[in-house]
Amino acid sequence: MGKAIILKSASEVERMYEANQIVASTLSLLQERIEPGLSTWQMDHWAEKYCRNHGGIPAFKGYRGFPGSLCVSINEQVVHGIPSKKVKVKEGDVISIDFGVKLNGFYGDSAITLPVGVIKPEIKKLLDETQQSLYKSIAQAVVGNRLDDVSAAVENHVTLFGYGVVQQFVGHGIGRDLHEAPEVPNYHRDGASPKLHEGMTIAIEPMINLGTHEVKVLRDGWTVITKDKKVSAHFEHSIAVTQGKARILSLRQSEDLPEYLLP
Ligand code: MG
Ligand code: MG
Question: What's the gap in Å between 23 CA and the centre of ligand 1?
Fold first, then answer.
């Protein structure tokens, strides 16, 4: 048996929204500033500064010893890339940026994969379809469904394009802890899966590979890369299950939602 799922009250969800909006604004800021030559350390510095200026605490810094505020993962890197002054992004790269913030006792967590300048059409499609798989899974996060409906929605969408679904890392419940129950896989799992209830707050985060699903961790102990070195994409939102459609707590102002998710 896993740990119990902690349901949140409306006021707790509101506090989570505030934490997540610092995350969302930080990601938007990085989206505006990303350009060839920028170091991933500089991105990390901007994110931490913005977060602290808004009263938040960067959630990843020091988490199990992680050195950065951001996870910045380039091209074949899937997740957990470490920011560095030596790593500069270049035209044609894709950069997965994952950020977490603690504010007033609650966590926010969200990620996007951004292109640097012009990228190959097949990679642009990977980014677009990974984001669409996130939206399709969010659409399943409604009272009466089960968690497996959320998980299967990601897999069902991306396998249409022959992409690999990372299995070794999954989404999670979120609240007073960065990682709470339940695990939120991006693929169907046989067996019982929890029913969704109002007040459940989860981070859904498809990690989708252009090639196979296989990944490995580099010797730095953090950076996850695809085994075949093909590009990977990562999109994440923290959401709350409410009456009716799910509420996207980490929604960015500039984000174009599909019509079926509009409130
Ligand atoms: Mg994250
Ligand atoms: Mg997460």
Answer: 10
Within a domain: residue 256?
A: no
Task: Please report which ligand is nearest the Cα atom of 179.
Answer: 2
Distance in Å, CA 109 to ligand 1 centroid: 5
CA of 176 to the centre of ligand 2 (A): 14
Please give the residue range of the domain that contains residue 244: 10-250
Residue 169 pLDDT level (bands cut at 50, 70, 90)? very high
- Write the DSSP string, the chain: --PPP----HHHHHHHHHHHHHHHHHHHHHHHH--TT-BHHHHHHHHHHHHHHTT-EESSTTGGG---SEEEEETTEEE-PPP-TT-B--TT-EEEEEEEEEETTEEEEEEEEEE-SS--HHHHHHHHHHHHHHHHHHHT-SBTBBHHHHHHHHHHHHGGGTPEEP-SS-EEE-SSSSSEEEEE-SS--SS--PBP-TT-EEEE--EEESS-S-EEE-TTSS-EEETT---EEE-BEEEE--SSSPEETT--TT----GGG--
- Ligand at minimal distance from the CA of 204 is 2
113-126 pLDDT, tens digit each: 999 999 999 999 99
Dump pLDDT digits (tens) for 199-227: 999 999 999 999 999 999 999 999 999 99
Cα-to-centroid distance, 236 and ligand 2 (Å): 7
Residue 2 has pLDDT above 70, yes or no: no
Percent over 90 (pLDDT), the chain? 98
Provide the pLDDT confidence category of residue 263 given band limits of 50, 70 and 90: confident
| CATH label of the domain that carries residue 85 | 3.90.230.10
pTM: 0.98
Number of domains in the chain: 1
